[in-house]
Amino acid sequence: MRASSSPRDAALLVIAVICVSASAPLIAACAAPALAIAMYRCLLGAGLTVVAMVITGRSIRIEGGWSRAAMPGVALAAHFAAWIPSLRLTTVALSAAMISTQPVWSALLARVSGRLVWTGIGVSLLGVLILTGWGDPLDSRNLLGMALALLGAVLAAVYVAYGERLRATTDVGSYTSVVYGAAAAVLLVVCLVARVPLTGYAARDWLLIAAITLVAQIGGHSAMNAVVHRVSATVVSTAILFEAPGATILAAVFLGQPVGVALVAGLAVMLVGLVLVVRGTQPRTVESGV
Q1: Which of 89, 28, 11 is closest to 247 using CA atoms?
Q2: For the chain, what is the total number of helices (H) and then of strands (E)?
Q3: Residue 228 — very low, low, confident or very high, per pLDDT cuts 50/70/90?
Q4: For residue 174, with 0-12 CB atoms within 10 Å meaning exposed, 13-18 middle and 19 or more buried, which class applies?
Q5: Closest-CA residue to 272 (of 99, 116, 157)
Q6: Is 223 in contact with 18 (CB distance < 8 Å)?
Q7: Which sign, positive or negative, has the C-alpha torsion 140, 155, 31, 256?
Q8: Which of 244, 206, 239 has its CA nearest to residue 223?
Q9: H or E stretch including 107?
Q10: Which of 50, 132, 45, 38 is nearest to 87 (CA)?
């Protein structure tokens, strides 16, 4: 970690990784429409942050105007709109494996070069081949789910590329309030156009949406945003990689989703490749996509 980081930052990072690992299993357990879950987690996340800002007497300030939050907000909305539906089509483990490729796309968007980076990308692709080529063949539904999660990883990298510039001049409360709010507005429009039902859910599903907001959005996203400017980008990026095995373990324990040899081997190889990419990338701000 950087010299200005602290044990508190390390603790927050550990909490953030645990929370983002719980995101996919919580979403998979919720029967509400995927787009509605995406909209509500952003809306409630923004609302809770605004309340915290008011209680602590802070004002929301975005240098250069609130319009600067439009692009990261749209990118975050698109990320959720791609990734969350993937959990309806494939397992938590396969979806989490694809979404954890975000550091690769961040490196490519930043035009990072070097033998270590490309070696890591190659190893990661080998891990994907192991996931999809060994064990029971994957049907078209699973492959579509994995493709959506992969698209979600790319969009998360785009979100980071826009958001890191805004975060450099914006406090975490203002950043999360406005960006989450912008994402919620975009997703609300999408839900209305697509006629996605936004009410009428079972009480259990409302509780799960609340848990997704508190655990994944606030405990995961916001906690990581709070330390990302003080903690080494390599440390943060490497920590993000633990989302895939963490989500896989939680899904196996609480949802009964199977964990086979091919899955474990593929995840292990992917993680090795992703670590190589992160270590070969120039230091930069990296944030989780879930």
Answers
A1: 28
A2: 13, 0
A3: low
A4: buried
A5: 116
A6: no
A7: positive
A8: 239
A9: helix 102-109
A10: 38
Q: 147: part of which helix (H) or strand (E)?
A: helix 140-167
Rounded Cα–Cα distance for residues 27 and 218 (Å): 15
24 within 8 A of 211, measured Cβ to Cβ: no
Q: Is the pTM of this model over 0.70?
A: yes
Question: Which residues fall within 8 angstroms of residue 99, CB to CB, at 6 or more apart?
Answer: 24, 83, 149, 150, 152, 153, 156, 243, 244, 289, 290
Crossing angle between the packed helical segments 140-167 and 70-86, to the nearest 10 degrees: 160
- The helix/strand/coil state of 135 is coil
Quick one: how far is CA 134 from the chain centroid?
27
Burial of 186 (0-12, 13-18, 19+ CB in 10 A): buried
pLDDT tens digits for range 109-160? 777 667 887 888 788 878 877 876 655 667 899 999 999 999 999 998 888 8
- Give the integer Cα–Cα distance in Å for 268 and 260: 12
Place of tokens 């929370």: 19
Tell me the one-letter amino acid at 121: I
Computed over every residue of the chain, the mean pLDDT equals: 84
Mean pLDDT of the 189-202 span: 97
Q: What does 49-100 look like in DSSP terms, one character per residue?
A: HHHHHHHTT-----TT-GGGGHHHHHHHHHHHHHHHHHTTTS-HHHHHHHHT
Q: Say if residue 53's pLDDT is above 90.
A: yes
